[in-house]
Amino acid sequence: MHDGPVPAVMSTAHVHPAITSWLEANLDQVITWRREIHAAPELSRGEFATTAKVVDVLTGAGLSPVVLPQGTGVVCDIGPADRPRIGLRADLDALPVPEQTGLPFTSRVDGVSHSCGHDAHSAILMGVGCLLAGVGSDEPGAAQTPGAGLPFSARLIFQAAEEVMPGGALDAIDAGVTDGLSRIFALHCEPHLQAGTVGLRSGPLTSAADRIEVHLHGPGGHTSRPHLTADLVYAMGTLITGLPGILARRVDPRSGTVMSWGAVHSGDAPNAIPQEGRMRGTVRTGSHEVWDELEPLVRSIVGELLAPLGVSYDLTYVRGVPPVVNDDEAVGLLRRAVVAMGPDAEVDTPQSAGGEDFAWYLQHVPGAMARLGVWSGVGPQCDLHQPNFDVDERALGVGVATLAGVVLDGDLRV
Question: Can you tell me the distance from the alpha carbon of 369 to that of 89, in angstroms, rounded to the nearest whole number?
Fold first, then answer.
């Protein structure tokens, strides 16, 4: 949060002058947009008000945004259609996580918050759109056409439902947002990097992420006589420890495969073995090859573990998203925009076990995602999806400069 002028966290000596001048005049507006979205978070595929806000802002900049067919999400082209087109993507949805930041613009929706930074992503891309719309050309009369002076055309993609598997990116792709793109780029907030920095990495950046749910059934019974029934809670405990352990020994440990349970529910009485229980968790891997093998392997292990215990079960396996694999040339375009902000702006970033449905776009067009440092440098580095996660708003200007710089200073031959 800031009060008054936003202190600089980047050098503007080598940043495109159109970016510098626009940020000097409009960064406070980007911060305002972020705060307004932050205070009114909407869950996946319910981002109607956020979608309407994006449309209103872009329309006000003279652009022609189009709402995607699902009713949430926006696509908007800027610049001449006869030039190579670069896609820029942000996500709109919030999480079912209560906010505990104490900010004056804290979430007004009980149990829902932007604890993953999508409010920042959206505000940044709105700013980029307004900035690029104002770039005219030297040709007479062309200045009235938004973005007429851009070296490349740009497509803004405000995507719904990133937080649910297999991701709203698939809906956007089905609507044709990747058609005609030469490259596609995105940013993601990174609370382990300081504001003013951008993490870049060629190759794998995130992991594949799948979801599993096991619904167990048994006759129930008295806890004093587990031998006369199927001990469903014991069976759940066997899965809790057995599936992650065995899976780790059935795949290459270099693949970064990890299975974790996030929700386990069964029973109420301490002296009654329940009749049913539910378990939910995720399986993640950094390897495309392992990802292709995971579902049959998980099904096999679950069956082997439960076979001697007399319970029946239903297993739902939701194949989520593949790994984000950054294209080398696309990372080069990001690097050019980032290093313009100073010699310390670019930092290395490791591959994460987190999942990101930006990976689906990369199945259709080469591109790259960068990690935007949002830590203030003071106090704890609150992780993504935590109730006290927040963004150092100085990072918003860095985000605008990065994505706008890819368009204004980019070279598709890099």
Answer: 9
Report which of 29, 263, 255 is spatially closest to residue 127, judged by C-alpha positions.
Answer: 29
Structural domain includes residue 402? yes
What is the C-alpha to C-alpha distance for residues 277 and 149, in angstroms, rounded to an integer?
Answer: 61
Which of 126, 129, 96 is closest to 114 using CA atoms?
A: 96
Give CA–CA dist 394/397, Å, rounded.
6
Tell me which DSSP letter residue 204 carries: E
pLDDT tens digit sequence for 335-364: 999 999 999 999 999 999 899 999 999 999
Identify whether residues 127 and 174 lie together within a single domain: yes
Q: Say whether both 83 and 141 belong to one domain.
A: yes
- Boundary of a domain, candidates 296, 321, 346: 321
Q: Give how many domains the chain has, as a whole number.
A: 2
- Asked whether residue 173 carries a pLDDT value surpassing 50, the answer given is yes
Shared domain for 288 and 314, answered yes or no, is yes
Cα distances (Å, whole numbers) of residue 323 to 80, 82, 261, 326: 33, 32, 20, 9
Q: In this structure, are strands 276-285 and 85-91 parallel, antiparallel, or unpaired? A: unpaired
| CA–CA distance, 190 with 211 (Å, rounded to integer) | 23
Q: Tell which residue, 120, 186, 195, has the closest CA to residue 157.
A: 186
- Using the CB atoms, write b or e for 314-337: b if 16+ within 10 Å: ebebebbbbbbbbbebbbbbbbeb
Distance separating alpha carbons of residues 190 and 213, to the nearest angstrom: 29
DSSP 3-state of 122: helix
pLDDT digits 0-9 by tens, 371-408: 999 999 998 888 899 999 999 999 999 999 999 999 99
Cα separations in angstroms, 271 against 141, 277, 325: 81, 16, 51
Tell me how far apart the alpha carbons of residues 350 and 396 are, in angstroms, rounded to a whole number. 22
Domain of residue 303: give its range. Answer: 208-321
